[in-house]
Structure formats: C-alpha cells, structure tokens
Specification:
elongated; mainly alpha; disordered N terminus
Length: 549
C-alpha cells in the first residue's frame, strides 16, 4: 500500500527507474562473479598454467562475452521497440539469470564460453531497455538524472558484488555462488511485472498531474494523441545517414571500452601486479565503483541543475561530457606511477623496498604461484626477515618452494640470446637476497595497490559523469520510436570496441605491464570528446533533412 500512496503523489516514474537501477545492480553482480572468482576457477581448472596463460584464457572468454553482448545490444534494441519495456526487461533478465546459474556446471574453456555468450546476449537488454524507459517515463530536463540513477545501479552492483562474493567464497564453492547470484534476477521479476503494467500514457496508477508533467515535458511529445511520441522518427537507413547518429555511435564506441577495461580487468590487475587473492580482491576492488556511483549521481544532478537554470540541452550535455573526460585523462597518466619509488616514499615506504618491488628478479618470486601462497604465511615471512642469502636458501619452506615452483621458460624455437634472457628461469641470488626485507616489499605492494585503486575511483567518477549524458543523446535528438534502435546501434559499437580492447589486453600486458592499456584508455576518452563536439554540432530535437532539387 505504501508504494501505491507514493505513486498517487506523483512519484511512479521514480519507482520505475529505481526498479531499472536494481536490475542493473543484479546485472553487475552476475557479471562480476566470473572475474572475482577467476583466481579460484583458474587454480582448479587450469592448475599447471602460468599467469600469462591463465590471463589469455580469461581474456578470450571475456571477449566472447563482450562480442555476444554487442550482438545482444542490437537485438534487444529492436525487441524493446517492438514489444515494449515491460516484457523486454522480463525476457532479458529471465534469460541472463538462468545463464548465470549454468556457470555452476562449466568445466573448462568451451562450456564457460557458451554460458558467458548466452549471458552476454541477454544482459545486453538492460541498456537499450533503460534508455527506452528513460525516454518514456521522464521529461527532458530529468533524463540525465534518471540515467544517472540507472548508471549508479551498475556502480552499486560493482560495489556489492565483490564483498558479497568474497563472503560467499568463505562458505561456498564457486559453483554454488553462481547459483545463488543467478536467483536474484528471478526475484526481481515479481515487483517488475506487478508495478510496470503499461507505458505512462495508459498506466492505471499514474496520476493525471504526473502523466501531464511527463508527456508535456518531453521534447518529442505525443501531440496527436496516438500514444506514440511525434518528433523525428526516421527509418533505419535515414537514421544512419545523419552525422549526429554517428556522433552518438562513435562516442559510445570510444568511451564504453574504458568502463570495460576496469570491470573486466580490475581483479586480474590486482592479482597479477599486486599479488592479491580472491578475498583481498573482494574487499578492495569495490572501491573504484564508489567513485563510479558518485560520478553517476553528480553527472545527472549537474545536468539537471544546468537545464533548470536555463542552459540549453546542447550546452549542458557538452559541458558535462567534457568535464567527465577532463577528469579521466590525467588519471590514466597517473596510473603509470603508483609503484614508483618517489610516490611510495611519499607514503612512508622505505626506499629499498620500493626499489626492490620493481626489480624483475624480485617480481619472479613475488608473482610465482607457489611463493604467493607462502608469503601469506606471517610465520614464514618472519623466519626469513633479516637473514642473509645462505640462511634464506636453507630455510625449509623456502627450499621446498624453490624445488616445486615453476618458472617461465623460452619457446623451443627461441634464439640463443632469447634463451639467456633474465626473465626466464629461477630468480638470481640478488632477487633472493631481497627476501630479507620481504615484509617491507609486501607493504610497498599493498601501498601501491591502494594508490592505484584510489586513482581508478577518481577515473570512474569522471567516466560516469560523462557516460550518463552520452546515453541520453538519442532521446535528446530523436523520437522515442527509434531511441531504442539508436541506443542499440551505439551499444553494439561500444561492445565491439570493448571486445577489441579485451582481446588486446592479454597481448599488451604480458609480464604484468598495464601501462599500454592505460595509454589506450586515455586516447579513447579524447576520441569520445571529439565525436560529440564535431559530429553533434547542435544537440536538440532534429528535423527531417530537406531534399535539395
């Protein structure tokens, strides 16, 4: 009854967007479970594989997911235009929840790839569906804030997913965790199908005052009473002939991979570069999503405030998108330096530990699977602290770890020079000697990880500030009849570029060097900014192009 009372007071549209935001939370919990659990999955299913090999498998499966997601964007863009948001969302979340549960029976690369592909196609419906719901249920001046609420759902999903999975991992196997998180989507269907009975033009719970407020506040409104927005609603060929459409598509294709760079690779980055295990990742990888959530709210509120004070839609969208990109670009540069000696010394890390942390021979030990586990044992760390080279080598646990550890080896066809490279084989005596102060090195790695996580939080704040306003561009310029279609095309472009980015990461980050990936991210932010300014000269409801004779 409390819900109905609020609806009669003119707040049904906020109930709708809140449900859509909850769907985004569930979407991200289901999606992030795979990355969060990957260290455990990899150790069980691929026990003899090194970090680069495991990362290649993870990257390939993730790329297949994103490619399927790209196809799903266009498929569901049309589905939402054909059958509406109510049934469109029900199909999308029902299928993806079932696909999540199927992960529990996966046993290797191919089964995971198939189940992630089904998940990707179905999860893709969330975004064109949200854009469609936003265009239907909100006047123009509230759309950026409504989109911000929805986008914050994705961020909250990231915040919730990692600690939730970390807690579940204490008590359950990774198979059981997939079943538990898959059930959430089926529970969401109950309030969705009960509350969202029809579009705002015909919804029986919508007060006349709220209905009037929504419909008269839309730039592409229904003036002829046919139940559909009037506005400019071109066919697909004409839609794609407009440079503004390509501005939306290119901006989405450039900016979206930035988000995927982090949501796919944060767990692997923290594990590979800083040696974090599943539980440590679970209780730290959520922090960047706090920045994302705040950015989603900030970008939406900023746009709403500027519009309410008389700023044009064109000026507002460009201002907020530019601000978001200006925040992101310096952060990509700063992510090169969390492990630098000067930065770590500023945070109280001893110089010798900061230097040793970057030493390739020390990295061999710190990143080796056998030694990673050993360094979690505080009694072992104390037993070698302050010892000389011979004493460290003679320590029983260290000697056993050296005997069983596997080290990188050159390929069979490698040249003699390549075979002698220092990256191959066990660590040198200099690297082993540094273990005398391994506790300080571990502290340096932890400090560097915290710095990197905080930079990522600021970066994702900027990303969400911009992306909510990029996602409203279709409804700013076109009729609701094709908003879902253009959003679907833009989403497909975004996911295809994210697919390329995800497939590229294992290649350009071999050996744990993620600087090339961050460089690509900075360039993509510039491309998105250029697309909005150059291809969308005036963000406003468009009119049909006049044919010149």
């Amino acid at each position: 009854m409390a819900i109905v009372t609020k609806q009669r007071q003119g707040r049904l549209r906020w109930v709708i967007v809140s449900l859509v935001a909850v769907a985004a939370i569930i979407n991200y919990i289901d999606r992030q479970a795979f990355g969060a659990l990957w260290p455990d999955i990899a150790s069980e299913l691929f026990p003899n594989m090194d970090d680069d090999g495991s990362k290649a498998i993870y990257g390939t499966i993730s790329a297949i997911f994103i490619l399927s997601y790209a196809a799903g964007q266009s498929i569901f863009g049309k589905i939402f235009d054909w059958i509406g948001t109510r049934i469109g969302f029900a199909i999308s979340i029902g299928v993806w929840s079932f696909a999540t549960m199927l992960h529990a029976i996966a046993g290797g690369f191919w089964s995971f790839s198939i189940f992630r592909s089904i998940l990707g196609i179905a999860e893709a419906g969330n975004w064109p569906g949200a854009a469609k719901a936003n265009a239907e249920w909100f006047p123009t001046k509230e759309r950026a804030f409504a989109q911000g609420i929805f986008n914050s759902g994705a961020a909250i999903g990231g915040i919730v997913a990692y600690p939730l999975i970390g807690i579940l991992a204490i008590y359950l196997s990774w198979q059981s965790i997939f079943i538990c998180v898959g059930l959430l989507g089926f529970l969401w269907l109950l309030p969705w199908l009960y509350i969202v009975k029809s579009p705002p033009e015909r919804h029986p719970w919508l007060s006349e005052s709220e209905r009037t407020y929504i419909l008269t506040g839309q730039q592409n409104e229904d003036s002829d009473g046919d139940g559909e927005p009037d506005g400019y609603s071109p066919n697909t060929a004409e839609l794609l002939s407009r440079k503004e459409s390509w501005g939306v598509i290119i901006a989405s294709g450039a900016i979206d991979p930035i988000w995927w760079l982090f949501i796919v690779w944060i767990p692997i980055y923290l594990n590979e570069v800083f040696g974090m295990d599943v539980k440590e990742i679970a209780f730290s990888a959520w922090v960047p999503y706090v920045g994302a959530m705040l950015g989603a709210w900030f970008g939406g509120l900023l746009a709403q405030k500027k519009l309410s004070t008389g700023s044009t839609v064109d000026a507002t969208r460009k201002y907020v998108i530019t601000l978001g990109c200006i925040i992101m670009i310096p952060c990509f540069i700063l992510l090169r330096y969390p492990g630098s000696v000067s930065v770590l010394k500023t945070f109280g890390v001893e110089e010798r530990a900061a230097i040793a942390m970057a030493d390739p021979q020390v990295k061999k030990l710190m990143n080796n699977k056998v030694f990673k586990k050993l360094f979690k044992d505080e009694s072992f760390v104390r037993s070698i602290s302050g010892k000389n080279l011979e004493e460290i080598k003679a320590q029983a646990q260290f000697a056993e770890a050296m005997r069983t550890a596997k080290w990188a080896t050159p390929k069979d066809d490698a040249s003699a020079e390549e075979r002698n490279a220092l990256k191959y084989g066990p660590p040198t005596d200099e690297g082993i000697s540094a273990m005398a102060y391994v506790s300080e090195i571990l502290r340096a790695r932890k400090t560097a990880a915290i710095i990197a996580i905080l930079i990522m939080a600021i970066l994702l704040f900027g990303f969400q500030t911009a992306i909510g306003n990029v996602q409203t561009l279709p409804s700013d310029m076109f009729s609701g009849k094709v908003v879902g279609t253009l959003s679907g095309f833009a989403g497909t472009a975004a996911k295809l570029s994210a697919f390329g980015m995800t497939a590229l990461i294992p290649i350009i980050t071999k050996g744990g060097n993620y600087i090339p990936a961050f460089l690509v991210g900075g360039v993509l932010a510039l491309v998105a900014l250029a697309a909005v300014w150059l291809l969308c000269p005036k963000i406003q409801p468009l009119e049909r192009l006049k044919v010149k004779y």
